[in-house]
């Protein structure tokens, strides 16, 4: 099928999320196999060797658990049984990746709920950032033990998009059993043609996607496009490619794509700044001295405790706060790493004193520059 697909340049990237579906790790009804994982791990290893960071979002736990129990495995439709199978299969799935990865792998189990809760979102983000800083390979899967709805949806595609935004990835790569997005489900429509590039996920494009065509896969093309649209809104392009074709997978390592490229809606920074600027009302307010106000107005500095004069409101860690100068004029907005009471205790202190003052530290920045948008530039122009 790839014969119809032109080879194109992969967007430049330094940090990517790679999502691998059950279909690539387990044959229908069968156990885990390294048949396709081998080439995918080769791509990940080559990316690491080139100094790039990768987060792997891998399905396959349910299929692995089922294969372990063989004829004793419970019926496919039973949700509690699927949860048990996932718990059984997580370790073999991780072991498969560890056997193929040149770097140590770390298991990260997440639910959508973890990522909706601000505090847990920040904790997940700092764990993943910490793992990437250690140059290990985080392998993320849904925590099926508690994620009943998510297991029903089988939604690791959407989880991969959320993780991509979480770690600030520049690219989301979704490996599937099919080599591209087609104009219609090719299993049902023999006239369906592959699409090399999607500029915008319009309702017409979304309507092309049907459900999964197999027993072990759960999401189908629909959840892949949902994931691409989440990534696009966060400024991250998505590529869909055939994970069964070793030539396609190897070409990715040379930054060449044979598959579908779905453009991002905006740059990552524009998307983030747009969100910070237009997010609902800030939960509180931090006042800063003239030096900090000037630094923050430039849009590239983090807010450190030393420049803080005080805090108003009862915001929590992870809440959006407004940052105002001594005259009460808003200079920036951002996500605060500390709760209001903690900020008040840290006001005017040096970053190195954080642990002594609080007894713990979430980092030297009260608001990290990645989580901050200046409301005006020095020249008075809105950015
Ligand atoms: N428009 C479409 N283009 C490509 N594939 C489609 C389309 N609509 C539905 N599909 C189906 O989606 C399947 C891929 O999703 P899925 O089986 O969930 O795989 P995975 O386990 O890799 O997530 C394809 O094999 C195909 O049958
Ligand atoms: N968490 C489940 C997978 C759910 C899922 O999204 O599957 P898939 O559509 O194959 O990516 C598992 O590990 O089996």
Structure description:
The chain is 37% helix and 21% strand. The protein has 383 residues and is of the alpha/beta class. It has two domains: 2-265, 3-Layer(aba) Sandwich (Carbamate kinase), CATH 3.40.1160; 272-374, PUA domain (Archaeosine Trna-guanine Transglycosylase, Chain: A, domain 4, Roll), CATH 2.30.130.10. The strands form four sheets. Strands 4-5-3-2-6-10-12-9 form an eight-stranded mixed β-sheet, with helices on both faces. The protein has a five-stranded mixed β-sheet with strand order 14-13-15-16-17, sandwiched between helices. A two-stranded antiparallel ribbon has the order 1-11. β15 and β16 form a beta hairpin. α8 runs parallel beside α10. The longest helix has 22 residues, at 79-100. The protein starts with 7 loop residues before the first strand and ends in a 9-residue tail after the last strand. The relative contact order is 0.12. The site of adenosine-5'-diphosphate (ADP) has 23 residues, from α1, β7 and α10.
Which key phrases capture this entry?
383 residues, alpha/beta, Carbamate kinase, Archaeosine Trna-guanine Transglycosylase, Chain: A, domain 4, 2 domains, eight-stranded mixed β-sheet, five-stranded mixed β-sheet, 15 helices, globular, binds adenosine-5'-diphosphate, binds ligand VHF
């Amino acid at each position: 099928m790839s014969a119809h697909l032109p080879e194109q340049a992969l967007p430049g990237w330094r940090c990517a999320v790679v999502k691998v579906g059950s279909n690539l790790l387990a044959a229908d009804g069968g156990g885990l196999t390294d048949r396709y994982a081998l080439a995918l791990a080769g791509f990940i290893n080559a990316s690491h060797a080139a100094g790039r960071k990768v987060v792997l979002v891998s399905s396959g736990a349910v299929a692995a658990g089922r294969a372990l129990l063989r004829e004793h495995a419970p019926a496919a439709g039973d949700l509690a049984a699927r949860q048990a199978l996932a718990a059984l299969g997580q370790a073999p799935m991780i072991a498969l990746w560890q056997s193929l990865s040149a770097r140590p792998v770390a298991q990260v189990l997440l639910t959508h709920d973890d990522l909706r809760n601000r505090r847990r979102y920040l904790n997940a983000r700092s764990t993943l950032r910490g793992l990437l800083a250690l140059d290990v390979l985080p392998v993320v899967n849904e925590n099926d033990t508690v994620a009943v709805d998510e297991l029903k949806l089988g939604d690791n595609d959407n989880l991969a998009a959320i993780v991509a935004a979480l770690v600030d990835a520049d690219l989301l790569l979704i490996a599937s059993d099919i080599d591209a997005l087609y104009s219609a489900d090719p299993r049902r429509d023999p006239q369906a043609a592959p699409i090399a590039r999607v500029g915008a996920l319009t309702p017409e494009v979304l309507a092309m996607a049907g459900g999964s065509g197999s027993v072990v896969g759960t999401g189908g093309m629909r959840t892949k496009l949902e994931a691409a649209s989440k990534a696009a809104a966060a400024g991250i392009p998505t590529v869909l490619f055939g994970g069964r074709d070793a030539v396609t997978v190897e070409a990715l390592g040379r930054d060449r794509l044979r598959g579908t490229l779905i453009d991002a809606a905006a740059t990552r920074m524009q998307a983030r700044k747009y969100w910070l600027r237009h997010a609902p009302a800030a939960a509180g307010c931090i006042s800063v001295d003239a030096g900090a106000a000037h630094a923050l107005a430039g849009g590239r500095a983090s807010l450190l405790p030393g420049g803080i004069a005080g805090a108003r409101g009862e915001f929590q860690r992870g809440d959006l706060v407004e940052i105002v100068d001594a005259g009460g004029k808003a200079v920036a907005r951002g996500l605060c790493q500390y709760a209001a009471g903690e900020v008040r205790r840290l006001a005017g202190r040096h970053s190195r004193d954080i642990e002594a003052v609080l007894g713990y530290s979430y980092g030297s920045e009260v608001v990290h520059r990645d989580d901050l948008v200046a409301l005006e530039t020095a020249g008075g122009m809105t950015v």
